[in-house]
Design goal:
The protein is of the alpha/beta class. The protein is built from 8 helices and 6 strands, in the order E-H-E-H-E-H-E-H-H-E-H-E-H-H. It has a 6-stranded parallel sheet, with helices on both faces. It binds adenosine-5'-triphosphate.
Length: 202
């Protein structure tokens, strides 16, 4: 059986426990040998113009994944020429790692707007979806019927809902509130030492 590889793409500005928990539950439920955290270039769907430099986001991802040998960091998206759509990114991962069975990890809320993603058919051609069920989003048959092959290329897994977001963390840092327990200790230290997220608008 081919080795199963998970991909968790994101801005990771900063990486937080929500990302780590969903990756860990996906690995366990689907039998992923590894989950690669793949920071994105400036993503098209974000309105913030000032995402932290890739150098800081990469350093934080590396610190966060270092303690878990199922987890790894990938600069696959960062080293491409410009921002990529998920479909393009997964096509490249598939080309470079043809022997792996690739699972793109996403929350159930993403499933709802999956048909509006760029080239959903191409995404499903190159990867399967690992969908974290989330309280508040019931995955219906209708949601799985929106795109051909979506149903047989999706695996649902249970994951606890941890209502933490990178934007919420940035807000708290700006207000001088604690982010302890929302991010691993090393990330909290890194953010403090570098003075990240103190300026308005970040
Ligand atoms: P922001 O608040 O800046 O929008 P974010 O916290 O959503 O950021 P991203 O880096 O954009 O973080 O997320 C990467 C991936 O992780 C996305 O697929 C997103 O749905 C998922 N994710 C983010 N936060 C959580 C969470 N608390 N629980 C489960 N999945 C999450």
């Amino acid at each position: 059986m081919p080795e199963r590889l998970g991909i968790l793409g994101g801005t990771f500005d900063p990486i937080h426990i929500g990302h780590l928990v969903i990756a860990s539950y996906a690995a366990e439920a689907i039998g992923l040998r590894r989950v690669l955290f793949m920071p994105a270039q400036t993503p098209s769907h974000k309105s913030r113009g000032d995402i932290s430099p890739a150098e800081d986001r990469v350093a934080m991802v590396n610190l966060a994944v270092a303690g878990d040998d199922r987890f790894g960091f990938s600069d696959f998206d960062l080293r491409s020429d410009g921002p990529s759509f998920t479909s393009q990114l997964l096509a490249r991962v598939h080309r470079e790692l043809p022997a792996r069975e690739i699972f793109f990890i996403a929350g159930a809320d993403s499933l709802r707007d999956f048909p509006t993603w760029n080239e959903p058919d191409a995404i499903l051609e190159h990867a399967q979806l690992a969908i974290a069920s989330r309280p508040g989003t019931v995955v219906t048959g209708a949601m799985l019927a929106t795109v051909r092959n979506l149903r047989n290329r999706s695996t649902l897994f249970e994951s606890p809902l941890i209502e933490v977001s990178s934007s919420g963390i940035r807000d708290r840092v700006r207000k001088g509130a604690s982010i302890r327990y929302l991010v691993p200790d090393e990330i909290e230290r890194y953010i403090r030492d570098r003075g990240l997220y103190l300026d308005a608008g970040t």
